[in-house]
């Protein structure tokens, strides 16, 4: 049995507490699997007096979180604070510069600074691991980095935000509107007090940019992700989608095209025969399409103390075994900067919903805008009762260039016939 892997733990909230509980509960098994014990030696958070439901008296408490990076008795720093910059980034930089292993669940930091941190890890031959940063407990990074490493990946996509999926599933099951279900999700602890990162698609975009870098060997490019969220989806859209054979899901998609890397997070209509249509509640799922392995589906809990701690400790076990390679599946200098693909070049089908004034000629106006932009309509449904006194019109297009749909919407912008903004959802093909 080797010497213990000694861990300095920064952040003792949901995930940090979960890591302590997991290491306690599975201590013997983990020691046997890792070939050596994994022991927390020092911890840090903001408030020393807070009751966290775990016994912290056996660990050294360090007031200055940044000092964990150079703690004399630690081999690895685990960062579970969060935030793209601030104390998490300081800790990452100083730990990696000092040659310490670094484990984090912090997708925001990796999306913004992943390349720099991978370069630092390589320069000092230190481990940088972040399984928990994408899809919580699902070992999707390991799956892509290791299991699917022999494949060229054509596309990686999935449901990457449990809060949105919980809200959309509940809206669908209960026919309720977004704001009401969001309030309930907040009361149940499924959504943050400030839910904007989740519901506006930013959190999913952080994760998508990390997955894309691993899948395509490109530098993480969060700034190139086109981001749309779910706050404008109505219960009526979900009902309409259902009647057409679809479910509404917030899907992040990354794929390599002829003119660059395409990355988008947006509400999609997912056909009922697609596995993502059956991912409900706070579950996450990721699909990767490899040129030899075919379609892989990873599914499980995308958040929560237990699943996220499971991923953090799996990273620690890898480090304890000495089994860690390049963080993004290839050395940082091999990651290429991918140009951002022009989404207008893509072809696809779309769902468009308009709320319009109840007057003669509106339908003709919309149809003319579609025709002039070259959008071919597959089905058009007019319903009576929109919440704001208007009439709801939903359109499903035939496959065509996304640019044409954008042009049609542009033609209708400012039209006196429209009540509010139209909603566009892409149809997952
Ligand atoms: N929660 C999940 O299900 C989940 C899933 C996947 C990934 N993640 C990621 O995991 C990380 C941690 O999330 P969490 O949900 O565990 O967060 P959390 O419950 O809010 O815990 C954050 C911890 O960081 C500490 N902290 C905050 N600011 C600090 C500062 N300036 N200096 C030192 N410590 C500070 C807090 O200290 P006090 O307790 O003293 O206030 C708290 O212990 C984030 O990057 C998050 O994105 C979370």
Features:
429 residues, alpha/beta, Rossmann fold, Alpha-Beta Plaits, 3 domains, eleven-stranded mixed sheet, six-stranded parallel sheet, binds NADP nicotinamide-adenine-dinucleotide phosphate
Give an overview of the whole structure.
Pathway: Amino-acid biosynthesis; L-threonine biosynthesis; L-threonine from L-aspartate: step 3/5; Amino-acid biosynthesis; L-methionine biosynthesis via de novo pathway; L-homoserine from L-aspartate: step 3/3. NADP(+) binds at residues 10-17. It holds the Pfam family NAD_binding_3. The active site is at 207 (proton donor). Keywords: Amino-acid biosynthesis, Methionine biosynthesis, NADP, Oxidoreductase, Threonine biosynthesis. This protein has 429 residues and is of the alpha/beta class. It folds into 3 domains: 5-137 and 307-321, NAD(P)-binding Rossmann-like Domain (Rossmann fold, 3-Layer(aba) Sandwich); 141-301, Dihydrodipicolinate Reductase, domain 2; 347-427, ACT domain (Alpha-Beta Plaits, 2-Layer Sandwich). It is 35% helix and 24% strand. The protein has 13 helices and 17 strands. Strands 7, 8, 9, 10, 11, 12, 13, 14, 15, 16 and 17 form an 11-stranded mixed β-sheet that branches. It has a 6-stranded parallel β-sheet with strand order 3-2-1-4-5-6, with helices on both faces. Strand 11 and strand 12 (294-301) form a beta hairpin. Helix 3 runs parallel beside helix 4, helix 6 (162-174) packs across helix 7 and helix 12 (362-373) packs antiparallel against helix 13. It is elongated, with a radius of gyration of 23 Å. It starts with a strand and ends with a strand. The model has no long low-confidence stretch (mean pLDDT 95). Residues 11-16, 44-47, 50, 65, 80-82, 87, 105-107, 132, 136, 303-304, 308 line the site of NADP nicotinamide-adenine-dinucleotide phosphate.
